[in-house]
Design a protein that fits this description.
The termini are far apart. The protein is globular. 3% of the residues lie in helices and 40% in strands. 47% of the residues are buried. By secondary structure, it is mainly β.
Amino acid sequence: MELMDVPPELIEIPPASIDLATHRKFNNFWYPIFGESRDDKTWVYASNGMWPSGLFADHQVVVVIPEEESVTFDMYDTTKYDKVIVYGSLIITASTSNILLRPGTLIVETTGIIDISTDPSKGYTVTIEIDAEIDRNLDPEETTVGVLSLGGTMNVRGNPVMNFMAPLNSTAIGGTSTVTIAGTSVSTEWKIGDDIVLPDTQQGLDVSHWNFPKNIPGGYIDQTEIVTIVGVEVDLDGNTILSLSSPLQFNHNIGAHAGHLTRSVTFVTSPSSLDRGHIMYTGGGAMNFQYVRLEQFGRTTIDKIDNTVMEDVSGLNFVDDLAQMTVMHQGSNQIARYVFHAHLSRVESYLHGSVILFSPRNGCVHHDSRVHTTNNLIVGATGSGVFLEDGTETGTVINNFLVGNGHGSRGGDDGRFSTSNGKDMGHGGFGIWARGQFATIENNRAEGHFGLAPFAYFIHPSFIEKLKIPDVPGTPPQLVGKTLQDVWRMLKPNSLTIQTFGSFQDNTAYGTWKTGLDLLYFGGNGSSFVGTELVALASSGRQISTTHTSFLQLEGGMIEAVFPDNTIVGVWCNNGGPLSINYEDIPMIDVFQERGGNC
């Protein structure tokens, strides 16, 4: 045998055809590839600025707006489209009539722009109604059905609503058909036909009982009510009397507020839809929703997260960011299918003046993004109304009205932290849940019944210590690229992290909960909580609870328990460091015990 010193010939394997790929990577996550050859639908294309015409069967047509097209949609179209895919521009303006568009999935590609608006002087409405069933063969991770923006831009603006919440002037009595609002601010804005929500204000629930709510004879009944206005008048005392379409079932106590639910633009899941819609946007496209009602959206539930697992085992040589995925496990409860979800968004985005009405998990989610969530009304989010997911979020949560309706797992986050690697969180029933200290959380109002807490922080260092704050326009430059440990080292000794780059200030709650303000794993430089007011209606529970917290200040505010003979503890400490409370500035009214644990 003769050995030859000749290198082997390298043969370059040509890239596999895109037709063999099932998924494309965008912003580090995989999404299905859409195309005419990939489903059995009829694909039609907009041209000359016109929406495709014809008689189309429900769920059988995909409408594509090509990149060079700008289409104005101004119809009340009852056709149920399978998908609407926007590469160009889609403009929806209700100026001459009400508008209805019924896509199964509304997809905004990177070059796509959707602009939706109404004219306050005309009174017409826009409804985007989602009606579809997920094709789990095409989309095993269930990203479709709803709105999916892969770097696209969406600007949605309804008619402004300045008074989205207003205090009751007197207790609204069950069996009557009127509600009296303090003052006249709503008398010209809240109109006949509008919907309002009244929070649950029942008193005396023993929520800290080990068997709650099964310990209640006859079972727990949520007393949140949504009613329709049929008359508006101002009385001789200068208050606004709202007449209702039907009598109230329950009392709603003075101290609570009514919330205004009606908006001129609505995104809603149809009652006939086999799957609920969700809104997720990612990448560099802007997202600006103002004065919009998001109803019956969100698909992830408070059950344990069960994600689909996919792998490319094809052995094919695809170009970058393409793959032929094989499902190794089909999940039954995918993470991240929420009502309004900023998923690794790299531009500032906005949810303002809007309504989120019922979600099986979370309402508005900031995930490694910079979102401004302001002046919204969030009702019945089973997990968390506003969820700041990773601890790297730097946006704002200001002046929102959160209404709890007694749902949630009622379990603390420690129970699932280890088994889910810190991912399956915020399921207990919260108003606002945050993992970091860099967001501004101010002037929010929580009312009703929250399964665990209206306000909570869970800053577990083993999850967030290596996560870096993203470079999103508007982020303080000194934070960009920093981890939480970097920030702690950067600050001067005794600096308060949450006051340097964020805040928790002047947030108030009136209702029922296990804990009013739940604080876990605060470390490093410490934080100060300013002007927190908590009025508890339950017979048991804690107003403020701290666990594994090294340094904490409470400044101003108020702690109160309304129910007689309650067992409520004002402040509870467990496994923590120094806690500073100025009792002259923080009155504790009618609580059973001011301090508990090792405070």
